[in-house]
């Protein structure tokens, strides 16, 4: 069932493909079989990448915008031409089904196309210096210049597209970038490096360093030559990075415990279908995943019945099968963690309506009701296929409860009443509100990020470009 040829991959170090004596195994979470080995980089590799990136940032900044655009488009072309290979690698090394993986490949191509187009829109503005008395003979403007060297640290759940969200705008803006992909899913990032290598990206501009974090030291975070860190991952790791990094630009997307509100006037069929998909996409390992649903009491029972019925129809199994809806979690340990969280909730009074069964790394889509506020699954990010449904009297109660967590990435609300939609828009403490969609909806061009423990800054290509550039003011004092 999913046996594949074992392969050895090299890592992409400052534009060269290199091996190392020490290697790291890449496992298929379906059965924990080894599907590949990649180099296990050490601290010397990191320091070398940084030193080479010092030249790389000069090279990248000097690439004309039209050539940056052409390189990124050529990389996108290569991925599009080999989309089934990319999808299969995503599915094998991670949790996604082949259908989910194909969607990620399409999004990656779109992310790169947008990056290429946004390269031409790194604008500045003229400044009216004569607004200040005594400055009548001064004229000027500001323009944006690249920050320099960027460290990107990426997670396992979108191993191709989230890396593209770092590399695409970084190159479009004229930066050098060093990427450390998740140890569990390095192959997709290396395939992305291959696309840029084939596209003619100059050496030293990009590195993809694979291996174990403990072997690499902390230079990717602390080295003074690194001018920006773009991190996607967990809150605790993000906080630790910020404490160590020093004076650097930061872009951090740190996950969530996303709420969805379903009011009595909602289109229930749409609300159920969207929320089930939003809860169990990629086995629930999704920062936007639906974790809490607040259904108004008038429709609560019907909503729960419909939600459970559709959840039970979810097909769990072989990731490469076209019929599969959900694959395994990224590891058996992660599945055990989710199992423990659900057990804790049930022991404290929650009712398990379906799921709650683990088989290795597989954890069945799970629905809980009557979840008490004092358990982990109610307040933390479960990052697994578990959703809790709560009964609420009205919109204000739902909003108040939705805000009672230390996260605020995105939220969804289902209603036909525009005034209630706008009430939610203004009162929900999140970075994005999706009306008549679940919290899981996103396009790659929109600003993406959160408030509170969900992060700092925004991704989405045009917005990432702002983060990856700095404004420089130019003022001419006229001598005539």
TrEMBL record:
Keyword field = Oxidoreductase
- The top EC class, named as a word, is oxidoreductase
* EC numbers: 1.2.1.97
SUPFAM superfamilies named in the record? ALDH-like (SSF53720)
Which Pfam families does the record associate with it? Aldedh
What terms describe the molecular function in GO for this protein? Answer: lactaldehyde dehydrogenase (NAD+) activity
Q: Which reaction does it catalyse?
A: (2S)-3-sulfolactaldehyde + NAD(+) + H2O = (2S)-3-sulfolactate + NADH + 2 H(+)
Q: Where is the Aldehyde dehydrogenase domain?
A: 17-474
Q: Which family does it belong to?
A: Belongs to the aldehyde dehydrogenase family.
The protein's role, per its UniProt record = Part of the sulfo-TAL (or sulfo-SFT) pathway, a D-sulfoquinovose degradation pathway that produces sulfolactate (SL). Catalyzes the oxidation of 3-sulfolactaldehyde (SLA) to sulfolactate (SL).
Query: What name does UniProt use for this protein?
Result: 3-sulfolactaldehyde dehydrogenase
